Amino acid sequence: MTLPQPGDAFEWTDTPGRAALVCRPLEPVARHIFTSRLWPLTPAGGADAAESWNGIAHALGAADRSRLLRARQVHGASVLTHREGEAIGQPTDADILITSDPQVAVAIQTADCVPVLIADTGTGAVAAAHAGWRGMAQRVPLATVEAMVNAFGTRPSQLVAAIGPSIGACCYEVGGEVRDQFAGAGFNEREMARWFSRESRPSPTNPSIAGLGPHARDGHWVLDLWTAAADQLRAAGVRDDRIFVAQLCTASHPDALCSYRREGSAAGRMAAAISARRTML
To answer: How far apart are the first and last CA of the chain?
Structure first.
């Protein structure tokens, strides 16, 4: 299988025996991976999924999946905070997971939604966040940074953030009600103009999904979640030169990435996971 070419700051690795994406500027700060569809993470779980979660844990330096902190993702902006020395309990509803414990990794799952991994070069704290359009309208990237500031004394200027594969503006047509949700959430006209367009934005790397024309249908818009995520991180105080986007659309690459928009309920899931390194920069 030929893997799609990610943005310049990202590269594919063989971890362990399956392709996964890493962000080079984030790697010295925190172990992390964005998995591909070659990791069988089905929504129903099962033996294959358990094996994949163990592999993810091992890649991040954890003994097994019992050291992975996960949550029930509900397309909101609730935060699950784990501090060093605390036990890992049963999953609760949350789409933002943060920890200061280098022996624990935090992980989320996606199949078109935006995975955001963040590490603090000062305190060592890390975060994994899940944001589809609902989460983005609720400011999940900004809320993640604020949660790290409140829980661990993070300075936003010391953060490194990686935005992993998700559905891109080449493929993501949404109804007018989605744009209305963002407008009702108080985003300004400049933000709305940057994130919503009448035209799709395919590229040689990310072609548009079959059936999607160059212009949005009447009453519809094309939503750019990558720009929305990066803009919200900047608004939270993360430096522009420390925000990195994988620039891979999940809907564009059926061999490598899972996409709910493309496959519907049969779609698999991908993981984004991160753990702190003991020695910070």
So the answer is: 36
- Whether the per-residue pLDDT at 121 is higher than 70: the answer is yes
The total domain count for the chain is 1
Provide the 8-state DSSP code for 157: G
What is the rounded distance in angstroms from the CA atom of residue 84 to the CA atom of residue 38? Answer: 32
What contacts 279, CB < 8 A, 6 or more positions away?
Answer: none
Give a yes or no: residue 24 inside a domain. Answer: yes
Q: Assess if residue 204 is contained within a domain.
A: no
Residue 63 lies in domain: 10-166+239-276
Q: In what order do the strands lie in the sheet with 30-35?
A: 10-14, 19-23, 30-35, 270-276, 105-110, 68-69
Residue 270 belongs to a domain? yes
Q: For position 133, which CATH number holds?
A: 3.60.140.10
The model carries a pTM of: 0.97
Over range 169-192, report the average pLDDT. 98
Those residues with Cβ within 8 angstroms of residue 27's Cβ, 6 or more apart along the chain or in another chain: none
